[in-house]
Design a protein that fits this description.
The protein is of the alpha+beta class. The protein has 2 domains: 139 residues, Creatinase/prolidase N-terminal domain (Creatine Amidinohydrolase, Chain A, domain 1, 3-Layer(aba) Sandwich); 250 residues, Creatine Amidinohydrolase (Alpha-Beta Complex), CATH 3.90.230.10. It is built from 9 helices and 19 strands. The chain has a 6-stranded mixed beta sheet with strand order 4-3-2-1-5-6. The longest helix is centred in the middle third of the chain and has 34 residues.
Length: 393
């Protein structure tokens, strides 16, 4: 934990302090930012960082677990019963007017809105205004070091090659097996991709999405050994893969491409081009904003991409946000490109990475086109290959 950096960020935000709270390991963000290990937290603990430089944090935890916050700097206090807890919390907070917590008004940013309603009521009962820590969380959870950014590019180099090879392999095997009256299916492709990841020292929290025809119209379709569709000549194929290098602190790379095993239809081309143009509108919005040194929030990127699909009359078929924060987890704790599921008003920060992945999902097939964007050295850039036309293989 970098106490000086946290206190500086609090002063920049105009907050008086940041109150961390947990019970039964509900708030993983708190553990990550504070650098706490795995605590068996059966009782409530609180940790208050004041904004004033040089002011000491205050630790408050139960006498049953007296050393749970011993690795953190600050003044240690303990409580036993609930009356003593309320009394000491009120005293801790008495000097402060506005305190950040892992809370989001109206649950607009669910990944940050982790403090339960009863605890919010308790803190507010002491005359304290609770404000959202969302931008603070982005600053301390989503910004990446130079070494971490390098791991993203290393994953990119391996995965862009795997994506290209996968389409070639599907085409080769399906045509050969079709002649031999055998077959290859979505599950088989998924296993092949997992083996390719292993050869490149890539790890992931889940194997890639491999979806043919109508299955591509389901945004989170995942084939299994028991439920898998055979792939035939003429099929439309969506491949969505995300992975990172198997090294400490490595950052994910996350992409989606689509293609047709044979000759695409006019409809295939139409939908792909719409999604491609929406993706480019989203990425260009970020690129232009940073070139002009203009602040940008996640919801604004979603608006730019979504407008392309809305104007074409397919707004109801674009059923998810435009993109998500990317870090050591594929879904990171920075700003999401979202004005559909939530209105993400978090600033897009320097040294962060996020996806831009609009989609149109129809009963007969679906298209998603995904790239990653890095903000670094005062500019934004797409970090990998960008699909301009359907893969024909």
């Amino acid at each position: 934990m970098d106490l000086d950096a946290i206190q500086q960020a609090l002063r920049e935000q105009g907050f008086d302090g940041w109150l961390f709270y947990d019970h039964h390991h509900r708030d993983e963000i708190a553990y990550s930012i504070l650098g706490l290990g795995e605590l068996h937290a059966t009782r409530r603990w609180f940790y208050l960082i004041p904004a004033h430089s040089g002011a000491e944090p205050v630790k408050l935890n139960h006498r049953v677990e007296p050393r749970h916050l011993s690795t953190l700097p600050g003044v240690q206090q303990h409580y036993g019963g609930w009356r003593e807890l309320h009394e000491k919390l009120a005293a801790m907070l008495q000097p402060y007017r506005r305190v950040a917590m892992q809370y989001s008004p109206n649950d607009d940013i669910p990944s940050v809105s982790l403090v339960d309603g009863g605890t919010l009521e308790l803190i507010r009962s002491f005359g304290v205004e609770v404000v959202s820590s969302a931008d603070l969380v982005s600053r301390f959870e989503a910004t990446l070091s130079e070494a971490q950014i390098a791991t993203h590019f290393a994953a990119r180099d391996a995965m862009d090659a795997i994506m290209a090879a996968a389409f070639q392999e599907i085409g080769h095997r399906v045509r050969q097996n079709h002649r031999d009256q055998g077959g290859w299916d979505e599950w088989g492709v998924r296993q092949w991709l997992g083996e390719a990841f292993g050869r490149e020292n890539l790890i992931t929290d889940a194997l890639p999405i491999v979806a043919a025809n109508e299955n591509a119209g389901n945004p989170h379709y995942e084939p299994t050994a028991e439920q898998t569709r055979p792939i035939h000549p003429g099929d439309f194929i969506l491949l969505d893969m995300w992975a990172k290098k198997d090294t400490p602190g490595a950052v994910y790379y996350d992409i989606t491409w689509t293609g047709v095993l044979g000759q695409p239809s006019t409809r295939h081309h139409e939908i792909f081009h719409l999604v491609r143009d929406a993706r480019k509108a989203g990425s260009q919005t970020v690129i232009d904003a940073f070139a002009a040194a203009r602040p940008m929030q996640g919801w604004q990127v979603d608006e730019a991409a979504r407008a392309v699909i809305d104007r074409a009359g397919y707004g109801d078929c674009f059923v998810h946000r435009t993109g998500h924060s990317i870090g050591t987890n594929v879904h990171g704790n920075g700003a999401n490109m979202d004005n559909l599921e939530t209105k993400d008003t978090r600033q897009i920060l320097a040294n962060t990475i996020f996806s831009i992945e609009p989609g149109i999902y129809l009963p007969e097939f679906g298209v998603r086109s995904e790239v990653d964007v890095l903000v670094h050295n005062g500019q934004a850039q797409v970090t990998g290959r960008q699909q301009e036309e359907l893969v024909i293989f």
